[in-house]
Amino acid sequence: MRSTKQDQTAFDELWLLSIFLLFGLGLSAMFSASVFPAEREFNDSFHYLKKQLFWGGMGCLGFLFFANLDYRILIRFSFPLALVSAVLLILVFFPGLGKSVSTSYGRNFHRWIQIGGFQIQPSEFSKIAVLLFLSHFYSHFNFQNAFWTRKNLTSISLILLILVLIVLEPAFGTTMEISIVILFYTILIGFPIHKIILLVISAIPLLAVLMTQVGYRKKRLDIWLDPYKYRFDEGHQIVTSFRAFLDGGTFGNPIGSGFSHRYLAYSHTDFVMAAFVEDFGFLGFTAFFVLILFLLIRSLQNLLRVKEKEGFLLGTGIVLLIATQVLINLFVVTGLVPVTGISLPFFSYGGSSLVTVFFLFGILANITRRENLAV
């Protein structure tokens, strides 16, 4: 029999290595893509790299903290955490505190809170609170009993409020991530499939209205259907992303050769994968895909040992959320879906997104490590 104390402190070393390999690879990709805009805007080629390293350090500290904090404590406080998340999402609309950005679509995006010299994006941190709350709600929910109880209505109303606030920012990609997790949980607890199908079908008209009748989303849909028609204005980013994939070829282009990133502007954010492929080619993309696939599969293998329902639901929700975020981002940069403004985990520039990913994996580490205590 193995030592309980030793098991309690042990990490899955290969799983942990894949996380930090992805972070290191993401730093190199983000730095290469950010050199020119950083030099142009701040006269400092390392501006974005230094900020990303700072947030990465905060993320690593958070990872260690959550990896050693019993996740059941977080679930116990999931309702107040969800309430705080809702309040922060409301604050982004307050003048002087919330920071908005105007776009070429004629729409203001309210996604950030300005605190001193820092900006935080509440919709990113809301993912943590929502996953904690959903795992608690679904682990105790029994659809065969009375549904319209005060507790159920309060819980559902809070989740809907958070989703509506995220849509209003707008952050449609984040809403999709959370909605997919909710659908997964609903299926997992045994809710009748035919009712789920009817619910999804009934939501299609609403989705159609949101996509075709809201100005900036309709514009994005038009660009997605014919990006080359808008290649000199709003469609420039996706068209140059196609060009970056083409120029990258199999082996990519040497960084500093003057060839890479000639066309792709601000590629260090949502379109960082296009810049990465331009630098490292199909082989670089293959390395990324193998690493992220290994991380997700290994996470699921570790979760299969988890016997606590709340822990299993929370862990699988984290894996599904990260996987969905990766897929949506890759679909966007390759033109398979319209642009949604969703970041690529470990790669895209952005402190809130990076810190959130590290926090989520720290919670996941705690969930899987606890199973060793039962030896």
Structure description:
The structure is a single chain. Helix 11 (236-248) packs across helix 12 (272-303). Strand 1 and strand 2 form a beta hairpin. With 375 residues, the protein is mainly α. Residues 1-8 have low confidence and may be disordered. The chain has 14 helices and 3 strands. Helices cover 67% and strands 4% of the residues.
Q: Alpha-carbon distance between the termini?
A: 7 Å
Counted beta strands: 3
Estimate percent helicity.
Answer: 55-70%
Lateral arrangement of strands in the main beta sheet:
1-2-3
- The rough form would be described as globular
Percent strand equals under 5%
The largest β sheet comes out as: 3 strands, antiparallel
The average pLDDT value, as a whole number, equals 86
By oligomeric state, this entry counts as single chain
Order of helices and strands: HHHHHEEEHHHHHHHHH
Instruction: Decide which structural class fits the backbone.
Output: mainly alpha
Low-confidence stretches: 1-8
Number of helices: 14
Radius of gyration over all CA atoms, rounded: 21 Å
Summary keywords:
375 residues; 67% helix; 14 helices; 3-stranded antiparallel beta sheet; mainly alpha; disordered N terminus
